[in-house]
Specification:
The structure is a single chain. Mean pLDDT is about 75; it is low at about 1-50, about 120-130, about 325-330 and about 485-490. Strand 2 (about 85), helix 3 (about 95-110) and strand 3 form a beta-alpha-beta unit. The chain has a six-stranded mixed β-sheet with strand order 12-17-16-15-13-14. It has helices spanning about 25-35, 70-75, 95-110, 130-135, 180-190, 220-230, 250-260, 270-275, 285-300, 310-315, 340-345, 375, 390-400, 415-420, 435-440, 460-465; strands spanning about 15, 85, 115-120, 145-150, 170, 195-200, 200-205, 205-210, 210, 240-245, 260-265, 320-325, 330-335, 350, 360-365, 405-410, 425-430. With about 500 residues, the protein is of the alpha/beta class. It is built from 16 helices and 17 strands. The protein folds into two domains: about 15-310, TIM Barrel (Alpha-Beta Barrel); about 320-465, 3-Layer(aba) Sandwich (Rossmann fold). This is beta-glucosidase.
Length: about 500
Amino acid sequence: MKLKMTTLAFASLLLEANCLITPSNALEHQRVARQHDPESLPIYKNSSYCVDASGPNGTLDTGNVPARRNSTENMIGEKHMTHFNLVGDITDAKQVAEFVNLVQQRALDTRLGIPVTLSTDPQHHFTENIGTGFHGREIGPHSVTPVTKHFPGGGPMENGEDSHFPYGKDQTYPGNHFEYHLTPFRAAIAAGARQMMLYYSRPIGLFDNSTDYEPVGFSFNKQIVTDLLRNQLGFEGIVVTDWGLITDTVIRACILDAGRDQFGGEQRTELIVQLVEEGIVSEDRLDISTRRLLRERFLLGLFDNPFVDPEAATRVTRMKLLPLKHVGTGTKFYIEGLNATFLEARNLTVVERPEEADYGLLRINAPYEPRPGGFEAAYHAGSLEYSDEEKARQAAIYAAVPTIVDVILDRPAAIPEVFDAASAVLCSYGSGSEAFLDVIFGSSNPEGKLPFDLPRSQQAVEDAMEDVPYDTADPVFRFGHGLRYADKCSL
């Protein structure tokens, strides 16, 4: 079982659930009448074709005409998009907040002044109460309405692959733990979850509660969306697709027939207008979705004040790091993965070689195997261990100087050699270098805990079952581990 975290995604076009009642012969007619038109499809094979992203230093994206990537100005002012997620890696929370404010100001300048809803989405948070933590005791101006994902659980992927790609399309349950993977979604629904996203994958050999589930992708699977999520679990909110599911008319119709509300990653609203014009979807049903969208914005207070506090974002990131081992003092630093100006601003000295330093500071990515292609290359997959060459390179640093390591865990890592050799090890999940240094030098306390096991080897992960928790033998650290500072410490 390999767990992973993927890049950020966004969803744009909202449609009403259960709004399609189409005889099968009508669907077949649509299939014959409208052939696949490559020019009409969104482009998902290359990450440069993302519809929206922040520009440099939190500015608005100016777009890329040759790559057919729209500018933020165009998306809001001309295409009237009102819902985005941020595309790309977040390295500075304050800049993200500044970008959000620029987008909201542009939205206010449009004719209707409808505020944009923005969110960032690191998939699979693995933490308790994340939904209620976002929206609070009740939805209001202080809230974020998160999308709970990926129903009915995106963890038990065959061989740990990713269903964004054809080789990872199968979701399997060798331990018969399908019901276990529904547990967090039951809790989220009970806590008031308002939006739900399904994954790309399809269930293989899944039989549960007298239901033999079709091996059909979850977004097209009416047994999953309508029968299970809505009818059995009682979810009444917005159901969202992941990116890139719209192709021909029959595909769009199948998604709606399954019970989906929102098409993720799309900007071509005319494709849905076409369904209305051809009598497949009623205009009244689209009005229902509009009411849902506007109701959410009113509850969030976005019409009153859509802006956020950039400084608050910086304060929060300082709380996300957790120490796994402690260390003493030093004044000269060998560094990797962070800018020397951060230390120089603290009147500290940065040297070029480990042998010259009192301490080393390394911020390193969790291991992964690069894969080819534009879109696929953005995903971290493959072995959870470093290569022999990288292990040797790091070992030479640890032998030369006491080293403090921050492992950026966008996915679990099998790195017992780092814990054995480094003087201190922290783990982070997207916080910036300044937050890391604040914890190292004692001006902020670490408060995080591991959201998953850190396995001892890749083999231990491969020997485990995809759908069974805590099934990895002898992990270095278990879920929930994390040290605290007993007293303020400083270097």
